[in-house]
Amino acid sequence: MKRDMELIRKLVLALEDTPTGYAPDYIEIDGYTPEQISYHAYLMDDAGLAEGMRLDNMNSSGPETVLRNLTWAGHEFADAARDETRWKKAMGIVEEKGGSVTISVLTQLLTALMKGALGLP
After folding, report:
1. Are 93 and 63 in a shared domain?
2. Predicted confidence (pLDDT) at residue 29 exceeds the cutoff of 90
3. DSSP secondary structure letter of residue 99
């Protein structure tokens, strides 16, 4: 399964939007299967954007993870990725330059766009 940065953004923002800081037992995102969500939750946990709990076993078809809460890095990514205009601009740059990017480079790009919007060098 390919990594989907749009889904990661949606999951981060959904976690950030919880009133207690803890995720519900299961997060649903329209247009995505439970398998896609679970795999991307696994990736987010692995990347340090969120803390998750592994649920996979020998009968699992892939990594199964449920998210519990965002980490500091997850909140930083949320702040950088929240603005829809900035997100679309960043993803347009990524698409123009080759179509894929690491999470750290995407965060740097979003941060640079945020700095520009704030008039910072």
Report:
1. no
2. yes
3. S
Question: Is the domain of 88 the same as that of 63?
Answer: no
Residue 99 is predicted with a pLDDT of 83
Task: Dump the DSSP string for 21-89.
Answer: SSPPSS---TT--HHHHHHHHHHHHHHTSEEEEE---TT-SS--EEEEEE-HHHHHHHHHH--HHHHHH
How do 50-54 and 65-70 pair as beta strands? antiparallel
**What digits encode the pLDDT tens for the residues 92-117?**
999 999 888 999 999 999 999 999 98
Q: How far apart are CA 72 and CA 118, in angstroms?
A: 22
Q: Return the pLDDT at 25.
A: 80
Interatomic CA distance for residues 91 and 5, integer angstroms: 9
pTM here?
A: 0.91
